[in-house]
């Protein structure tokens, strides 16, 4: 009987049915916010989804929040989780020095511009992955974390059935062909970041370190641009030709909230500030901020976002 129960528990964990992404508790739909977001998404030339949860009141708003979208560089959040899981188990030393090799190069980002044999501390590579969204560094850390299969196993065990690393992951060719490096639902990506914020991802110490990384963003011209600069945020964005996305926690005066907005199949594939996906992300962020902080006197500049290069 004990063997059966243990096997049944393992099966539940493997399918993400036993563990839950975080102690979300009972939620209630925010009808007003939902209506505003539905209006904002109407007419978008592509597919878009949004998930919002007020962490103080547990009110939520969701539009296509359980649909699967490309993560683009948001996949670097679960990569970070997989890496810190290895660190917590003593399989990787957080402060170890790494040696870069030319064989690791993926693109001409910061890490990809290093000379062969350059030495760099692991924490700096993590910082570059999250704050600068460095791709070469991210793939390096993905491999150190045990590869996409190990990261996906961690996600499954923690209740994230839809977030997946596809690139360089056995058995994920179909997912990579459809979604690219990674895939997620807006709800799961938002709740993963909320789990980190709540100190529940791996352990409190790992969550705190990861959350500090998420609070240091170079790419702040979209959702973050609609939040007052004196308000703490923790975020990660992502973009490929036909998709734009961003997830963030906002430490608003009247209560923290988390949200994720994702797009796919965009007709607008330009890389300008007025790309329809970027414009939607800024609009969604503005709506949510003004909804939860209606008396805020701060307003973004009319040309907010134009300084994105």
From TrEMBL:
Catalyzed chemical reaction(s): a beta-lactam + H2O = a substituted beta-amino acid
GO MF entry, a single one: beta-lactamase activity
One GO BP: response to antibiotic
Entries under Pfam families matching the protein: Beta-lactamase2
Signal peptide: 1-19
Keyword Phosphoprotein: no
InterPro entries: Beta-lactam/transpept-like, Beta-lactam_cat, Beta-lactam_class-A
Record-linked Gene3D superfamilies: DD-peptidase/beta-lactamase superfamily
Keyword Hydrolase: yes
Membrane-spanning intervals of the chain: none
Keywords: Hydrolase, Signal
Domain (Beta-lactamase class A catalytic) ranges: 49-263
Protein's recorded name: Serine hydrolase
Biological source species: Dyadobacter sediminis
